[in-house]
Write a structure and sequence with these properties.
Blueprint lengths: L3 H6 L9 H18 L6 H12 L7 E2 L3 E3 L5 E3 L4 E2 L3 E4 L4 E3 L4 E2 L4 E3 L1 E2 L4 H5 L4 E2 L2 E3 L4 E2 L4 E2 L4 E2 L4 E2 L4 E2 L7 E4 L4 E5 L7
Parallel strand pairs: 1-4, 2-5, 3-6, 4-7, 5-8, 6-11, 7-12, 8-13, 11-14, 12-15, 13-16, 15-17
Antiparallel strand pairs: 9-10, 17-18
Helix pairs in contact: 2-3
């Protein structure tokens, strides 16, 4: 029989009030609070707290406090990832972030989702879908990434966008819902 955590990570309906999951979220919130309470002169302590929160993170990663997440351990950070102020990652499923990716302030990354059927939703069960973000991506301030999306490498997501579907590589995409506006790269008009 699968544990609630195994169900959660498999994208199945699971009970978020499970004791193990409550404990892991509590741990992550304590680490995030400690990180958020540090000052700019406490770089080593910030690095230590983030290493404990994520388990591993790429070289040169920088996160401006405040930062919030559900578990931390379901987030994989490439090298030189940057998060501006007040970002939130609901990492109920895996969140994979490539190298040299930047997040503007107030970016929200949501893997958590709930049943659309009201009766099923009333049960309190939920599920999640992983999010993957490629290398050299820039997510503009206030953008929201919905469960299950993939954003291709070298893509730019405009500020305030709501990403509900996959976005390919090498494009500028924006809007609500987010859609491709134009290609980027050597052959594209900048």
């Amino acid at each position: 029989m699968k544990s609630e955590k195994e169900k959660m990570l498999a994208g199945e309906l699971y009970n978020p009030r499970d004791a193990q999951l409550l404990s892991e979220r509590h741990r992550a919130r304590l680490l995030a609070k400690a990180f958020n309470d540090t000052g700019d002169d406490q770089g080593q302590e910030r690095k230590r707290l983030l290493s404990e929160l994520f388990g591993a993170m790429g070289k040169g990663t920088f996160i401006e406090p405040p930062f919030y997440c559900d578990y931390g351990g379901n987030i994989t950070l490439g090298e030189r990832v940057f998060f501006n102020f007040n970002c939130v990652i609901l990492d109920v499923a895996e969140v994979t972030i490539g190298n040299h990716t930047m997040f503007g302030p107030n970016v929200q990354v949501y893997t958590a989702t709930h049943p659309l059927d009201a009766e099923e939703r009333r049960s309190g069960l939920e599920s999640a879908k992983p999010i993957t973000i490629g290398d050299d991506v820039w997510i503009g301030g206030g953008a929201i990434l919905c469960p299950g999306v993939t954003i291709g490498s070298r893509t730019v997501i405009g500020a305030g966008s709501v990403v509900t579907k996959d976005i390919p590589e090498d494009v500028f995409a924006a809007g609500n819902p987010c859609r491709v506006i134009r290609p980027l790269g050597d052959d594209a008009t900048r």
